[in-house]
Design a protein that fits this description.
Chain lengths: ~160, ~250
């Protein structure tokens, strides 16, 4: 089963725990097998991840509605300048610290970072997974990274 | 470009998602702007930290097992009488195949009902979007019409008229071959402020006529017209009025 790691990684980051992530991926695979005929060639990874994402959001809506704060994509990426401290702070940022920072982002921002910086998908592929235009992905990534940098800068001071 | 404009594009630049012209503009700016360069470096540091910290979760063996058992018997080739579940999957597979075949069979009818216009719109907008991806914009990169026009010779069975409108603030960026409307066509690329415009040109037997209505497709504007035996279709994300202005310039040139 190709792409299972990518599917699980996305589900795990969206659901926030191992048990629910497994359920989400399993359910997504059942659907992928059942609706295999809707796959019209192209990128099978994006196709599977899009199903996983839909399942994950359905699950979040039902079980963690408070984590789904609507974000305004129209808003231009206004990134507060984290300044020079942010650059040096990454040197000392360990995985646990980054995990915590990523966990604090809104789901749409978190998935953009996970798919781009961790899974290495292209903007176009991420746009297919999230079912939004490439421009929206660009703006979400910019805002997500701005928030991560601010988080690092903030915690770096304390 | 101003620093604010650079900041908006810096992420796409760092991710290698910008087309060549923009990348070059940004590199030019970075050479003379330490502030933007610092920003780029901090983005790169963040990317390195995220991609090298092993933040990915891997599918546990228990999940792998479950998924393996989900896959229909056909994949595992177990030789025993089919269980109910296997029959179930067989029926699902047969149903899926039927749906796929029906979809394919029904498609030509659907196409002939939707005016060919839609197929053309889809064609030109897809070509436009594809052209914005890195390295796809131009085959011949030149603002000199005397370079661009001869480049098309021998590559096309017609000679498109190539003009530069730099004076009217629509400089010619270059040209490329493209495939639209089931034929090879010439694509000229113009720039206006920060917008890129693709102009697709191919010969037509239709008479010279007024510009078509402005159509909008997936957020892009498309306008077409015929002049002197050539068909022109312009695609861009820029303002309708400005696109009409360029259409006017191209239509008036003779």
């Amino acid at each position: 089963m190709p792409h299972l790691d990518a599917a699980y990684n996305l589900a795990r980051w969206l659901a926030g725990n191992h048990h629910d992530a497994e359920d989400i991926v399993q359910e997504a695979c059942v659907r992928a097998l059942r609706f295999g005929s809707t796959f019209r060639g192209g990128n099978s990874r994006s196709w599977l991840l899009a199903i996983v994402r839909n399942m994950a959001y359905t699950w979040l809506k039902k079980n963690r509605p408070q984590t789904l704060v609507p974000i305004n994509d129209e808003e231009l990426a206004e990134i507060e300048d984290p300044g020079a401290t942010a650059t040096s702070a990454f040197g000392s940022a360990d995985a646990g610290f980054l995990r915590a920072a990523l966990g604090e982002l809104p789901a749409e921002f978190r998935e953009a970072i996970v798919l781009r910086d961790i899974e290495g998908l292209s903007y176009k592929e991420i746009a297919e997974v999230a079912n939004v235009p490439v421009g929206t992905i660009m703006s979400r990534l910019a805002r997500a990274r701005g928030q991560l940098q601010n988080y690092v800068a903030r915690k770096g001071e304390t | 470009m101003t620093c604010a404009e650079i900041h908006l594009l810096l992420h796409a630049y760092a991710d290698g998602e910008l087309e060549v012209v923009r990348s070059l503009e940004i590199e030019q700016h970075l050479k003379g702007c330490p502030k933007c360069e610092a920003k780029l470096n901090s983005l790169k540091a963040l990317h390195t930290a995220l991609s090298e910290s092993d933040l990915a979760y891997h599918a546990p063996a228990s999940l792998r097992d479950k998924i393996r058992h989900l896959a229909p018997a056909a994949e595992r080739k177990i030789e025993r009488p089919p269980s109910d579940l296997q029959w179930f999957w067989k029926w699902i597979a047969a149903g899926a195949t039927a749906v796929a075949i029906l979809t394919i069979l029904l498609r030509p009818a659907e196409f002939s009902q939707n005016a060919p216009d839609d197929a053309l719109l889809n064609d030109v907008v897809s070509s436009h979007v594809r052209s914005l991806m890195p390295g796809h914009l131009t085959d011949v990169l030149s603002s000199d019409k005397h370079t661009v026009k001869p480049w098309f010779e021998g590559k096309l069975d017609f000679a498109p008229d190539v003009k530069d409108f730099a004076a009217q603030s629509f400089p010619l960026i270059g040209g490329r071959l493209d495939y639209v409307n089931s034929r090879t066509v010439a694509a000229l690329v113009y720039q206006h402020n920060k917008h890129l415009i693709n102009v697709f040109i191919w010969p037509t037997t239709s008479a010279t006529g007024a510009a078509s209505e402005m159509k909008s497709y997936h957020g892009y504007y498309v306008i077409s017209f015929n002049t002197n035996g050539f068909h022109y279709t312009l695609v861009s994300d820029m303002d309708q009025t400005e696109l009409k202005e360029l259409a006017g310039l191209l239509g008036d040139q003779n």
